[in-house]
């Protein structure tokens, strides 16, 4: 490719080895400031490892786009066309997609097709985690329980699948952010309605139909794997039941009401999945616990919105550590990770319903919160926590 004359291009590539970090674009429901925290700590770690850190993001309200944060900032939409031009000019050593939420992760496929090095977990491993069929096959192989599911392309197929997996079912499009257009439905007529509306909004998308584990506990694990060693950053127990989007749930760190056996099973399954997926860097796994049995709902091969929460609660620079592991500069054994947390930390969702007066305030599988806060409590006798736990709603919106 012939380079444009320098007078028309203010970006002059340096001779240093470069790493591009993809951000998450504008704040929106399902993806906000948490990923900015991840990107900022990632940039610092990249610089510490001696690379030039290049940030691609287009959100003026974030720290990752501050002029002095990265060695070089491209204030551009996180879309393929923009990214490809930057890559052609900068010729980076590699690109990090694990820190910018789902937006960044979605670009992994195009990067892979173009032969660009993805730093950390490979595209194929990410694809197994993201592709429901491949992931369920993996879980079956590993002998890990998961809710029955099926895929469909039409309303007729969807009804057939729903009857096979058993009601209630969760109807959702594949590869979406923040549970967009997910519905919990209880009969054929509702499945048909949900699928028709889904295909109207996202034509041609594969529809996933999962058996919905009604009224059960939900929990999640965030972890780091370096190819050899596995480290659990945190086990969070949700106060709300499964079916309320994890972004809208109050999550308590560490777990407070799960038996040691359940927690250990979750940790065991997490490590098995991380090893099988050959993760290099971060992974987040969501679980449902029903009648003492642990089911895996999904795995995200990236930083999750709870990663910064855990790093702050335990006062451990987890994103710095994870980035150095993705880059292959360090192993987990190079770090001492001393968890400093007396009592419990609660991740609280923040809602902006007063700004959207017409919005249905019931919570369900589609995310509605616009942010999160952290609250520290000394023990479970804390009156705030007791009220929260007592009043948790077991009734979900459809």
Oligomer: single chain
Strand-residue proportion: 15-25%
What is the succession of H and E elements? EHEEHEHHHHEHEEHEEEEHEEHHEEH
How are strands sequenced across the largest beta sheet? Answer: 13-12-9-10-11-14-15
Gyration radius, rounded? 21 Å
Distance between the termini: 53 Å
Q: From the helix content, strand content and strand pairing, which structural class follows? A: alpha+beta
**How many H/I helices?**
12
Uncertain runs with pLDDT below 50, 5 residues or more? Answer: none
Residues in helices, as a percent range: 25-40%
Average of the residue pLDDT scores: 91
Mass-distribution shape: globular
Largest sheet report: 7 strands, antiparallel
**Total DSSP E strands:** 15
List the helices and strands and how they pair.
Blueprint: E1 18-22, H1 33-48, E2 52-57, E3 72-75, H2 80-90, E4 94-96, H3 101-105, H4 108-113, H5 123-130, H6 132-142, E5 149-152, H7 155-165, E6 169-173, E7 183-185, H8 188-201, E8 207-211, E9 217-225, E10 230-238, E11 251-253, H9 260-276, E12 281-290, E13 293-300, H10 307-314, H11 318-326, E14 344-350, E15 371-377, H12 383-390
Parallel strand pairs: 1-2, 1-4, 2-3
Antiparallel strand pairs: 5-8, 6-7, 6-8, 9-10, 9-12, 10-11, 11-14, 12-13, 14-15
């Amino acid at each position: 490719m012939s380079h444009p004359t320098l007078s028309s291009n203010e970006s002059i590539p340096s001779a240093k080895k470069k790493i591009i970090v993809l951000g998450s674009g504008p704040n929106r429901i399902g993806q906000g400031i948490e990923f900015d925290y991840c990107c900022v700590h990632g940039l610092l770690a990249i610089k510490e490892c001696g690379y030039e850190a290049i940030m691609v993001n287009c959100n003026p309200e974030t720290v990752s786009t501050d002029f002095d944060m990265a060695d070089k900032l491209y204030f551009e939409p996180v879309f393929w066309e923009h990214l490809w031009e930057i890559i052609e000019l900068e010729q980076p050593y590699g690109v990090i997609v694990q820190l910018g939420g789902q937006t960044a992760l979605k670009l992994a496929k195009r990067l892979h097709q173009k032969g660009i090095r993805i730093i950390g977990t490979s595209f194929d491993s990410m694809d197994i985690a993201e592709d429901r069929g491949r992931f369920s096959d993996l879980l079956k192989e590993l002998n890990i329980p998961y809710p029955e599911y099926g895929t469909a392309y039409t309303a007729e197929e969807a009804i057939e699948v729903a009857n096979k997996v058993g009601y209630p079912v969760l109807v959702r499009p594949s590869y979406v952010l923040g549970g967009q257009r997910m519905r919990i439905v209880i009969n054929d007529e509702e499945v048909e309605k949900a699928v028709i509306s889904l295909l109207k909004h996202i034509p041609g998308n594969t529809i996933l139909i999962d058996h919905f584990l009604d009224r059960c506990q939900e929990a999640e694990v965030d972890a780091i794997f370096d190819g050899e060693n596995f480290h659990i950053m945190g086990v969070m127990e949700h106060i709300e039941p499964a079916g309320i989007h994890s972004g809208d749930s109050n999550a308590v760190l560490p777990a407070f009401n799960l038996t040691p056996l359940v927690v250990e099973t979750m940790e065991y399954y997490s490590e098995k999945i991380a090893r099988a997926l050959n993760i290099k860097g971060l992974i987040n796994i969501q679980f449902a616990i029903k009648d003492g049995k642990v089911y895996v709902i999904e795995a995200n091969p990236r930083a999750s919105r709870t990663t910064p929460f855990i790093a702050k609660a335990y006062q451990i620079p987890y994103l710095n550590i994870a980035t150095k592991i993705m880059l292959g500069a360090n192993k987990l054994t190079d770090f001492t990770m001393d968890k400093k947390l007396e009592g419990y930390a609660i991740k609280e969702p923040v809602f902006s319903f007063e700004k959207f007066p017409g919005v249905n305030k019931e919570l369900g599988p589609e995310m509605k919160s616009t942010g999160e806060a952290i609250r520290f409590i000394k023990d479970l006798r804390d009156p705030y926590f007791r009220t929260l736990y007592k009043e948790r709603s077991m009734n979900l919106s459809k």
